[in-house]
Design brief:
HATPase_dom; 5-stranded antiparallel sheet; alpha+beta; Heat Shock Protein 90; 3 helices
């Protein structure tokens, strides 16, 4: 990554099926501008897809996406209006779903959730 400061990106997304693709484009453009390595850019695209998909599936209302550069890498935050905190579940091997948070944990240096006044933020930091 380059050493100059980078402007964080924050947008509101609809809680619809197309939100994940829109989020991937936004994060892709941001990390490309910041000169992030292709490997980290690919991981960021997958992480934001999983975070936004979970929010679309389990929350209501518009979503807030924020992506920023940190001293250690990239931070992605997805906020929604559900107070229910996500929890990784055991994977059902015959199911095509249910692996999102496992993928986020595998690709992130750290991830977590923070309650907000009207819901929660799920965040992930990538090296």
């Amino acid at each position: 990554m380059r050493n100059e400061p980078a402007t964080p990106v924050a947008v509101t997304l609809p809680a619809t099926a197309g939100a994940s693709a829109q989020a991937r484009r936004i994060v892709g453009e941001a990390v490309a501008t910041w000169g992030v390595s292709p490997d980290v850019a690919e991981d960021a695209a997958l992480v934001v897809t999983e975070l936004v998909s979970n929010a679309v599936d389990h929350a209501t209302g518009p979503l807030e996406l924020a992506v920023s550069r940190t001293a250690q890498g990239i931070r992605i935050e997805v906020s929604d209006r559900s107070p229910t905190m996500p929890e990784p579940r055991p994977v059902q091997v015959d199911s095509a779903r249910g692996r999102g948070l496992i993928i986020v944990a595998a690709l992130s240096r750290e991830w977590g959730t923070s309650p907000t006044a009207d819901g929660k933020t799920v965040w992930a930091e990538l090296a």
